[in-house]
Amino acid sequence: MGLEFNFSGLIAPSKSELIRALCLKTWNKDISFDLNSSGEDVNNMVKAVKAFYNQANSFFCGDSALMLRLFSTRLSRLEGEFILSGSNRLFERPHQALWETLGTLGCDLKQSGKELKMKSQGWNKNATHVYIESSLSSQYLSALTLNSWQLKNDITWDYSKLSSTEYLNITLNFLKKSGLEFEKEQNKIHIKKNQTPQATHFQIEPDMSTAFTVAAWAVVGGYAEIKNFPTHSHQPDFIFTQILKDMGVEINFLNQMLLVKKTKHLNTINLDLLNTPDLFPVLSTLCAFTDGVSVLKNVKHVALKESNRIEKTKELLSLINCQTQFDGTNFIISGNKNLLNQTHNSFTFNADHDHRMVMAAQVLKFAGIDISILNSNAINKTAPELLSYVC
For the chain, first and last CA: distance in Å? Predict the structure, then answer.
C-alpha cells in the first residue's frame, strides 16, 4: 500500500515567467508582478536584480541556466567588468553559442570553473544583423530579445532552428506586453531602436510543470484539487491536461479548479515532447504503469538539463523492471499495468541534484513502491512548497 496523496491548494507562479519578468525589471523599475515564490532559482534572480540596481559587479545564479543566460546578456549591455557564479552543474550545461554571440557584440567572456568573467563595452553600435546558433536552447534567443531595449540602431536576430519554439513565444508575449515593437519572420526577429519597456503589471500564471507533477502524483496516489487554475495558458506544459485525458485519467475543470483523481488503468501514449521537455521524467514514469508501449518523441535535448534525464530516467525505471529504450531521438517505455501489483525490493535512487528526477521518483513512492530518494531537497530549486510531500 502506497502513501496517500491528497492536495488542495495553489500552485506557485511560473518560474520561467517570473525570471523573464525580473529581467525586464532591470530595464524599468516600475514593472510589477506578484512574486509569491520561494524557489531557489527565483530567489537568486530577485537578489541579482536588487544587486544590479545597487551597481554590484558579482551575481550568483545557483543552478539556473535561464538566469545565467538572461543576466549575462543584460550585463553585456553595460560597460564594466562582472562575475557570474553558480554550481558546477550549471557551468557543465551548454552556453557556448550564447557566449560566442555576445563576443561578436563586443563582450569578452571567460568561463573558469564555477565562474563566468565578463568585460563589456556594451553592444557594438554597428551590430545590425546578428546570427545566434539556437538549436540547443531557445533561451539564447530569449536572452537577446529580452535585452534589446534602448538600442542605438535597429537590429535583426537571425537564428537557427529552435529546440523549443513555445518558450520563445512566452518571451515574445512578455515583450509585446512591455510595448516592444518588433517583427518576426521565419528564423528572424527585427527590433527597432530607442525603445524602453512600459510600466506593465504582469499576471504570472501558476507553474504548469509543477501542476503536472501534482496531477501525476494524484493519478497514482489519491486526489488533487488545484485552485485558481486557468482554462488556457501560454506555457507549453499546459498540454499536460490533454495528455492525462488521453491516458484515461479522470480530470475535470470546475469553478476555476483542476480536479484529478487516482486512475487504475492508464492508456499508452505516442507524443512529441520537443516543446515540452520538462514533462519527460514524470511522464515517462507514469507510462511505466500503462499496459503497452509508449513513445516519447524528440527528447534528446532533455539530456542537457540539470542532469542527463534520459539516463537517469532509464535508471529509475530499471529499478522496477520497466524496460526502456532510447534510439537517439525517441524514448520508448514498455509499460506493465501489473507493476503496481508486483512485489519490489526496497531500493535507493540518487536524484543527482535534479528537481525533476525527485518529482519522477516520488511518483513511484505514491504508487506504493518502497523507494528512498537521495538529494530530494533538489526540489527546492523550483517547488519548495512540495518538499513536505517528498520522503
Answer: 15
Residues spanned by the domain of 313: 207-389
Picking from 278, 233, 304, the residue whose alpha carbon sits closest to that of residue 382 is: 278
Give SS3 for 343.
Answer: coil
Answer for the pair 14, 206: CB distance below 8 angstroms, yes or no: yes
Secondary structure class of 108 (helix, strand, coil): strand
Euclidean distance between CA atoms 241 and 8, whole angstroms = 17
Tell me the angle at which helices 280-287 and 355-366 cross, rounded to the nearest 10 degrees.
Answer: 20
Q: pLDDT digits over 101-156, tens only? A: 999 999 999 999 999 999 999 999 889 999 999 999 999 999 999 999 999 999 99
- 343's grid cell: 512485489
- Where residue 113 falls (left for φ over 0; alpha for ψ -120 to 50; beta otherwise) is left
Residue 2 lies in a domain: no
Strand, coil or helix: what is 296? strand
Q: Which residues, at least 6 apart from 346, have a Cβ–Cβ distance to it below 8 Å?
A: 370, 371, 372
Structurally, the chain folds into a number of domains equal to 2
* Continuous segment of H or E residues that includes residue 101: helix 96-104
**Exposed, middle or buried, 202 (CB in 10 Å: 0-12/13-18/19+)?**
buried
Asked if 356 and 282 touch (Cβ cutoff 8 Å), the reply is: yes
Round to whole Å and give the CA distance between 360 and 141. Answer: 29
pTM metric for this prediction: 0.94
CA distance 79 to 297: 44
Residues 178 and 211 in one domain: no
Determine the 3-state secondary structure of 350 from DSSP: strand
Note whether residue 198 is domain-resident.
yes
175 and 253 together in one domain: no
Name the phi and psi angles at 83, rounded to 5. -130, 125
